[in-house]
Amino acid sequence: MVFPWSHHRRSLDSQFLAIQQAAGISLPCRAKHEHTDACYAYGFHSLRRAYATMNADTMPMPVLQRKMRHKSMSTTQRYIEIAGKMKRATEAVYVPEFLKVGGG
Fold this sequence. Notes:
The protein is mainly alpha-helical. The protein has two domains: 8-42; 44-104, no CATH class. The chain is built from four helices and no strands. It has helices at 9-22, 44-55, 61-68, 73-91. The longest helix is centred in the last third of the chain and has 19 residues, at 73-91. The protein is extended. The termini are far apart.
């Protein structure tokens, strides 16, 4: 464990939610269900997904698989495919020259 936590997992989730609420994070929830406070915040799996997305291009698949602790290479492959789709989508977004770094 990176940060030992001697309490119940649910209390860690509550603290993570409280930190996000204090920071003013409020994500949209489009699911058709009875909403809870957790609908509008990141979960710990979001951190895992972000880690995989940010590192998919920087390390070989077996290394990413080991770091993500995936048993199956196909799980890691799905993360890499999603990262590729996200990268292509962000590269396709129009950004005016004056908003680009060094663009004026």
